[in-house]
Amino acid sequence: METKVQVEPKERLQSLDTLRGFDMFWIIGGGAFITALSKATDWGWLAPIAHQMHHTSWSGFQFEDLIFPLFMFISGVAIPFAITSKLEKGIEKKVLYKKVFIRMILLILLGFVYNGALRDGFSNMRYPSVLSQIGIAYFFAALIIINTTEIKTRIFWLVGILAGIAAIQFLVPVPGFGAGAFTPDGSINAWLDQHILPGKLIYKTYDPEGVLCIVSATSVTLMGTFAGFIFRNKKINPNKKTVYLLIIGAAIVAAALLLSPVYPIIKKIWTVPFNMLTAGIGFLLIATFYYIIDVRKWDGWIFFFKVIGMNSITIYIGGRIIDFWHASGFLLGWLANPAGNFGDVIITVGVITLEWFFLYYLYKNKIFLRV
Prior knowledge:
Elements: E1 2-5, H1 14-41, H2 47-51, H3 63-88, H4 93-114, H5 117-120, H6 130-146, H7 151-171, H8 188-196, H9 211-232, H10 238-259, H11 272-295, H12 303-309, H13 312-321, H14 324-336, H15 343-364, E2 367-370
Helix pairs in contact: 1-3, 1-11, 1-12, 1-13, 1-15, 3-6, 3-9, 3-11, 4-6, 6-9, 7-9, 9-11, 10-11, 14-15
């Protein structure tokens, strides 16, 4: 982990930081704001949007299910800029191996911290985490990119991962349930988590960041690298890049939906159609943000999200350590308490404001947590 003062790279994609910030916004309070506003107003049109701010109970898909895999997709988009560019400059592979390995270890350790290791110790701790899954998936996706040069080889690896996950989830029998069970108790994911993972699982029988989920989610990060290579290809003009990304995204989404009747979309065990659907949406979103921000230069609105996106890991960890909700209540309780149903809206706006100004202070002083 490296905390340093640095100048923002000239070739940095503004759309990538903005999309990352947009994604993180929903984690740090955007979803809570929509939910609170819906409860306070009883606006009929807002209720279905607020419903999207919650995960599906098992199978299916809602907006909230997109947030984590979208972050992983975005981390994949950055790999060609962070890794391939260094290979082109002659940096040895062993240097990059060390770099991505250390990154993985640091994210695993930060995941332990996020899960309360410093507070409660390691006894019966939950070991899997969002951060560890990001780190491990990035590591393996980066290894593939470091050691391959042709797109067909990278596609082979991607198809191999997806096909391997599908084969395991469909064909490997689970004692008492048989093969191909897509339930919280009977999935192969649950059996592996129960027999391999130390400590406790977040749910009784499985963990959504468990053993097979990590391997499966690597495909989402790897799919993000294809978008990154399109962005770095100087032979393709910006408008064509947008079109290519939109076509790829639409095709992947369509394929996922075609598979879903026989292979369900389940975020909690990262089924192949779920990976494809979220990565496809990732292509569509990055294409849209890229066209609006980097091609058309309609960027007057991006600063709010860019500040969040430049320190996404910082606010994710910071929100776990610093009680912004308590601080907001302390500062704004005099407004929120007499406001009735709108009290939660006021407190949530306060939380987002405090978090943003915390990040703005870091941004203004060019302090970025690079992991």
